[in-house]
Amino acid sequence: MKAAICVLLLCLFSFHDYPPVGNPRYDFLDSIKAGIGNTRWHLNNNMDELSVAGYAREAAMYEDSLLGRGPDILVNLREDEIVDARKYVLDQADKYRVILINESHGRPEHRLFTKSLLAGLYKKGYRVFMAEGIWPDHELDKNHYPISTDGAYLNEPNYGELIRYAFKSGYQVKGYEHPIRATWDDSIRLDQFGSVRYVAFDPPDSMIITVKPDGESSVYYTASREKGQAANIYKVMRANPKSKFIIHVGHAHLNKDGTMMGSQLWELLHYQPMLCIDQDQTLRRYVIDSLKKDTLKLGTPYVLQNRSTHKYYRDNYSVDCSLVNVEPKDSLYRPSYLFKDVEPRMVYNIPAAELTDYPCMFAAYYPHELKAQNEKAIALDVVYVNDPRQLPPLLLYKGKYTIVKKNKYGVYSTFDTDIR
Q1: 184, 201 contact by CB (below 8 A)
Q2: Do residues 30 and 49 make contact, with C-beta atoms less than 8 angstroms apart?
Q3: Rounded to two decimals, what is the model's pTM?
């Protein structure tokens, strides 16, 4: 009799229809920050995790505390012309076979700018899209959409959508990351007597930091990871001799000097022309019109071109151009750059019946991806409702979605919507 009851209970639990919980990286603010320390790298990781989870404003605050506000960029609008950044790239694209464009990992707007280029560049013969955020053991070739194990940064909804849009636009999507060992400590520190303490690691990563007793730090780059990345890109290029290539990189990896990946790739390509566009060096800096003493605040990304020399502004002389992106502002409690996605988004207000047990998290998934992947699925958009007087909408494309909700008690539920 007891055995029969146990079998019956097992069947009941086995066939109970639990709602999917979706990607665990989308969560309440306190849960994301729990257990993260105060060192530079803890702060950097916290910034990245907040960005992935949809906390753009909070991620930017960490970025400011880590890096501070940079020096102003002074321009003279009698001598310097403002050029739409997307037009600049598309006009230049015919001259090149390879375009490298970077991102700051905590800045979703950088991914949206790269996304805005894809359709136009495809028309100009670009057929392969590569991204640093994709890990070597990815399943993109099988799924044709990203999942969480394809790369940590891909969990950020706009990065995930950049990958989906590349597929929809006709691109092959490839990764090029060089595998590294996760256990090394590549720091070098000076003790109170000025002696250097080296921590052994093999092979070296691409960045070494020295920290003096007063906290001042210096950054040095080594070649191991950079060479591996460049070699992986070159291998893909050799396999696609008729294609042109877009390479979306992180931070300084696109530099064409020193030991960085861009330099290593340029050497492998025998220094053939290669367009390198930086979005990183102009962050946290004001562009000032030196004639009017006004801060330039444009609604779209732009570059600056000297009217006489026709050369473009570049903060770093190993790139071809430094792009000034839009300073994010809030609109309907959402980052303004989301409203300028190349794929038009619709405002979807959360139904009032779903807001009675706030604070709540709402993550919008493509139904077939959520069904197939559940916790590995990557949402199109995520919002958090902490105050019923401030209700941020989801910003979705036309189509069907499953919304995963998590309430203040940690209870999950789902509902469907169709954006027409």
Answers
A1: yes
A2: no
A3: 0.88
* Per-residue confidence (pLDDT) for residue 222, from 0 to 100: 63
Rounded Cα distance, 284 and 3, in Å = 67
Closest among 405, 366, 364, 403 to 385, alpha carbons compared: 405
DSSP string covering 264-311, please?
HHHHHTTT---EEEESSTTTT--EEETTTTEE---SS-EEEEETTT-P
Tokens of 104: 């700051």
> Cβ neighbours of residue 77 under 8 Å, at least 6 residues apart?
289, 291, 292
pLDDT of the residue at 38: 66
Which one-letter amino acid corresponds to residue 31?
S
**For tokens 């990351």, what's the residue?**
177
Tokens 């012309």 — which residue? 81
What is the three-class DSSP state of 409?
A: coil
pLDDT reported for residue 248: 98
The model's pLDDT over 278-336, given as tens digits with 9 standing for 90+, comes to 999 898 888 998 888 888 888 899 999 999 999 999 987 799 999 998 888 888 999 99
Mean pLDDT in the chain?
Answer: 87
Please state the rounded mean pLDDT for residues 372-400.
96
The enclosing H or E element of 164 equals helix 157-168
Report, as an integer, the average pLDDT of 167-175. 98
Give 344's DSSP letter: -
Closest-CA residue to 233 (of 206, 204, 260): 260
Cα(62)–Cα(43) distance, rounded to whole angstroms?
A: 7
Contact predicate 75/293, CB 8 Å: no
Contact 108, 322 (CB under 8 A): no
pLDDT band at 70, cuts 50/70/90?
A: confident
Distance CA 242, CA 200 (A): 43
* Tally of CA atoms within 13 A in the half-sphere of 340 that contains its CB: 22
332: tokens are 């309907």
Q: Span 148-177, mean pLDDT?
A: 97
Residues 222, 261 contacting (CB under 8 angstroms):
no
Question: Could you give phi then psi for residue 379, rounded to 5 degrees?
Answer: -75, 155
Specify the 3-state DSSP secondary structure of 386. coil
User: Which pLDDT tens digit goes with each residue over 230-280?
Assistant: 999 999 999 999 999 999 999 999 999 888 999 999 999 999 999 999 999
Neighbouring C-beta atoms of residue 58, cutoff 10 Å:
18
> What are the structure tokens assigned to 289, written together?
């019109």
